[in-house]
Specification:
The structure holds three protein chains of three kinds. Chain A is mainly α. In chain A, about 75% of the residues lie in helices and about 5% in strands. Chain A has a two-stranded parallel ribbon. Chain B is an alpha/beta fold. In chain B, β12 and β13 form a beta hairpin. Chain C is mainly alpha-helical. Chain C has two domains: about 70 residues, Winged helix-like DNA-binding domain superfamily/Winged helix DNA-binding domain (Arc Repressor Mutant, subunit A); about 45 residues. Classes of the chains: A mainly alpha, B alpha/beta, C mainly alpha.
Chain lengths: ~260, ~280, ~120
């Protein structure tokens, strides 16, 4: 199959930033490793230990930001080159899937390096996000094939979901004028960090609700992420649903978007 | 069905009616002038043809294919717009490279050659180009893209006289070697009139005139002579403008003329298009 | 040759007459090649269809002929042909009006001939 130009164009945009990102990650690992070797060489430092956990979560944030930057230029380039919104949208999904799978693979390599370092040196502890979330499931098998496979799958879904969320936000912002944008940002902050905690606290203290809403939300999050059931596949399904919802909303917005002057 | 057919296109932006039931046809391998003052609706029409904006009413067919959200139709058309849509951080060279990916008939060598002729440094980033060179950069792509329909929106914006002349000559050269449909949107009628085969004039979203350039030129004439002679001559005629200089007068008249009725001493010249255009598109 | 937009004559006529002038003055000799449609239109910044229309008039009159794949050439005997044509036009444009005006002023044929002779001498 011949890859479409708009697929290649969108993918090419990420090449440089991905390289920079992994250079930074590798640099961090190298620094940690060096410090570790130095500390071993120096006597009386036997208590020194470094804990590295959740480095594998960093690409999620990175891809979220990628999603946030993935609309305007590509949209304008599409229209300049006679590519429809539909083709742009379909190819964006293809690009994001490529990114999710590719980054998940790279993630495995980093994880393997990290774990190898931990094996090599007792003062480094390296664990993945999955081991944190589903500790019981993987207890005693820090290097099992099952763990690697499930991490690989889990991250594809996680990355895809965060790419869709970032993309949806930027498309929504593109559709808004300046006033609307400010209203939404300010509104979101007030709602999430002022109004919600206040109301939550108030309702609980006044005895209207017997539990905190935030507590319920957290439990809900645990449930959909399969933490309660200790099953990462529940999380994958939930993340897939989130992706699908985000993509659908995005399409509703992109469908009728015109060029701005 | 060949050509681009525009059927009853209406477009509103809030309360403003940008295009009002505009219908016209662009035939293959002709050079069209789309004329009108700033904000008349020229760019809106071009943006609708190229699927960048959606019409509120009406439809457009490109060689029989619906224009809206149709890659098959859109790959036959290239619009050089006033606004730059290429990524700011990209170099001209990279944009050329990508243009070849999107348009398989894009002539990369020709584009480089043109850039050299215009003195455009293709290693420069798009965002660092001055208004003039930004126009040149887009002109170079438009002349190299080799689609059957090429739309130019204010192509000579910011260009000096020399570069303008180069553009017109290159356009004619390209056109006579391998004909295509060119639509040139501009408000500088005089400069392009001799290149155009057909002229369309838009005013406040309405299509006022859609004629061959030759017919348009024949639709009127100018006369000059002494004030008395001219005043007598124009009595029963439709005059669109009068310029007086001392005892001399020049009048631009709409209508045909019988040369034998022309009194001695009155000199006749062709229609002053710019005056005609200003008169037509002036706000009442 | 000059193409003038303000000229009352259509541009294709101006092109045709411009080439005729060039042939009459010898700038384009008989049997010699003349510029192509592209060269003409690029040079004068006019639509190639307009240039073609101008050339077509000359081809129809047998002033110019086309050689497929090579170009356009001035036909043998076209100078003579053009001279005759222009002489006819000269009579139509100048002599007729001259005589019309002369009649108004009461100038006789002899007087006109005198004037013409004087004009040639000066």
């Amino acid at each position: 199959m011949k890859l479409s130009a708009i697929y290649k164009f969108q993918l090419a945009e990420h090449k440089k930033s991905i390289i920079v990102f992994y250079l930074v990650i590798i640099a961090i690992l190298a620094v940690v490793f060096t410090i570790n070797i130095v500390s071993v060489l120096i006597p009386n430092q036997s208590n020194f230990s470094i804990q590295l956990s959740g480095i594998d979560l960093a690409p999620t944030i990175f891809l979220f930001v990628c999603g946030l930057n993935a609309f305007k230029e590509n949209f304008q380039m599409s229209l300049q080159n006679g590519i429809s919104r539909k083709s742009l949208f379909v190819n964006r999904i293809a690009v994001d899937l490529t990114l999710a799978v590719g980054m998940s693979l790279l993630n495995q390599i980093i994880l393997f390096i990290g774990k190898s370092m931990a094996l090599f040196s007792a003062t480094i502890q390296y664990s993945s996000l999955l081991e944190e979330l589903y500790g019981l499931r993987y207890a005693g098998h820090p290097n099992g094939l099952m763990l690697y496979l499930e991490i690989f799958l889990f991250y594809i879904f996680l990355f895809a979901a965060f790419l869709s969320i970032g993309y949806f936000i930027t498309v929504a912002f593109y559709r808004m004028n300046k006033k609307q944008k400010i209203a939404y940002i300010v509104g979101f902050y007030i709602l999430a960090f002022v109004a919600f905690p206040l109301i939550d606290e108030l309702l609980y203290k006044l005895g209207i609700f017997s539990v905190l809403i935030s507590e319920v939300l957290l439990r809900f999050l645990y449930a959909i992420m399969g933490v309660s059931a200790q099953n990462p596949y529940i999380a994958m399904i939930s993340l897939l649903i989130i992706s699908i919802i985000m993509r659908s909303l995005t399409w509703l917005l992109v469908r009728k978007t015109g060029i701005k002057n | 069905m060949n050509g681009i057919e525009v059927n009853n296109i209406t477009k509103r932006f809030g309360d403003t009616l940008a295009l009002n039931q505009v219908s016209l046809k662009f035939e293959p391998n002709k050079i069209y002038g789309l004329l009108g003052r700033n904000g008349a609706g020229k760019s809106t029409l071009l943006n609708i043809i190229t699927n960048r904006l959606f019409p509120d009413e009406g439809d457009i067919k490109i060689e029989g294919l619906a224009s809206v959200e149709n890659d098959e139709a859109q790959k036959k058309v290239y619009l050089m717009s006033e606004k730059n849509l290429y990524p700011d951080s990209m170099s001209c060279r990279e944009v050329f490279k990508w243009s070849l990916m999107f348009y398989p008939n894009f002539d990369l060598e020709y584009a480089k050659e043109l850039a050299k002729q215009f003195g455009l440094d293709i290693n420069k980033k798009v965002k660092t180009l001055s208004t003039g060179f930004s126009s040149i950069f887009k002109i170079v792509i438009a002349l190299s893209v080799n689609t059957p329909y090429v739309l130019f929106d204010e192509p000579v914006l910011g260009l000096d006289a020399n570069h303008r002349e180069m553009f017109y000559k290159l356009l004619i050269k390209k056109y006579s070697h391998s004909p295509f449909t060119a639509i040139i949107s501009t408000h500088l009628i005089e400069e392009v009139a001799m290149i155009l085969e057909n002229v369309m004039i838009i005013k406040n979203g309405d299509l006022l005139i859609n004629e061959s350039c030759e017919t348009l030129l024949k639709s009127g004439y100018s006369v000059s002579g002494t004030a008395k002679q001219i005043d007598d001559f124009i009595l029963d005629k439709e005059v669109i403008s009068i310029d007086a200089l001392g005892g001399l007068k020049t009048a631009t008249i709409i209508g045909a003329v019988d040369k034998s009725t022309l009194p001695l001493g009155i000199e006749m010249t062709g229609l002053d298009l710019q005056k005609f255009f200003i008169k037509l598109t002036n706000e009442e | 040759m000059q193409i003038n937009f303000e000229d009352e004559r259509p541009i294709f006529m101006q092109i045709a007459e411009g080439i005729e002038d060039a042939i009459l003055t010898g700038a384009f000799a008989e049997e010699e090649q003349i510029p192509s449609i592209t060269e003409l239109s690029v040079n004068y910044k006019i639509n190639p269809a307009t240039a073609l229309k101008g050339i077509a008039i000359l081809v129809d009159e047998g002033i110019i002929f086309k050689k497929r794949g090579i170009g356009m050439f001035v036909a043998q005997g076209s100078v003579l042909k053009l001279r005759n044509k222009r002489k006819e036009l000269f009579y139509e444009h100048y002599i007729k009006r001259l005589i019309e005006e002369a009649k108004k002023l009461g100038i006789t044929t002899a007087e006109i001939l005198d004037m013409v002779e004087r004009g040639y001498e000066e």
